[in-house]
Amino acid sequence: MTSVGSARLYRPAAGGDEKWPHLAPVLSTRTIDWDLIRHQRGLEQMR
C-alpha cells in the first residue's frame, strides 16, 4: 500500500484534462500507446 501515492494513470488521449479535474494529481503526462496494445494483442492471438 505504500506505493499507492506514487501511482499514475495514463491518459487515454492527449488533451481532455478538463474532463477529469479531480484526477489531475494522479494523471501521467503520457498517453496510452494504443498501437502497442494492438500489436501485443495480435501477437497473443497468433500463439
- Label the overall shape: elongated
Mean pLDDT: 83
Helix content: 25-40%
- How far the N terminus sits from the C terminus, by CA atoms, comes to 35 Å
Largest sheet: 2 strands, parallel
* Unreliably modeled segments: none
Write the H/E string, N to C: EEH
- Discrete helix count: 1
Task: Please tag this protein with its features.
47 residues, alpha+beta, two-stranded parallel ribbon, 1 helix, 28% helix, 17% strand
Structure summary:
The chain contains one helix and two strands. With 47 residues, it is an alpha+beta fold. Helices cover 28% and strands 17% of the residues.
Overview of this protein structure:
The chain is an alpha+beta fold. It is built from one helix and two strands; from the N terminus they run E-E-H. It has a two-stranded parallel sheet. It is elongated. The protein starts with 8 loop residues before the first strand and ends with a helix.
Q: What secondary-structure arrangement, pairings included, does this model have?
A:
Elements (H helix, E strand, L loop, with lengths): L8 E3 L15 E5 L2 H13 L1
Parallel strand pairs: 1-2
